[in-house]
Amino acid sequence: MKAEILDYSIALDGTQRVTLLLKSDFRQAYDRYIGKTLNVRFSEWKEARSNNQNAFFHSLVNEIAGCRGLTEDDVKRQLVVDYGTLARDSDGNIIGFKLPVSADVSTIYPYTSFYKEIEENGKRFNCFLVYKHTSEMDSAEFSRLLSGTIDEAKELGIDTDTPETKARFY
Questions:
Q1: What's phi and psi for 157, nearest 5 deg?
Q2: Which residue from 45, 53, 74, 158 has the fewest beta carbons nearer than 10 Å?
């Protein structure tokens, strides 16, 4: 939820109070949380990607797939891994997982990259890093993905600066 800190004070007994200006309707959440102990985490607000960015990205994915003879899903997966953002937990740690070497990671999660192979108790595992879904990226993260996608499209001779795409993206 988007908010601004308006005020901060410390009472004589040492308790602290923060006053927030909320940018969306909080009434239902208030009724649900009033009187309960909450876990509160503050982080800087980042704008979500725009619909124009998303449409332009998917049009380029479509054209790249056509040039390479691949599916759009395969191209998107490759672009997200090459130019996307590693997923992190709430403490900022990079998210990854291990699977038996016989498991097909693509059936579990689409945006991963192989990290290393390990052995535990005589069994072999492949370790993978996890990347964010494009829908979870903020504007800056998605711009980095889009920039890499544009570069790849240009390398294939795809026109990325037509009036139509400029109007949709910019």
A1: 80, 15
A2: 45
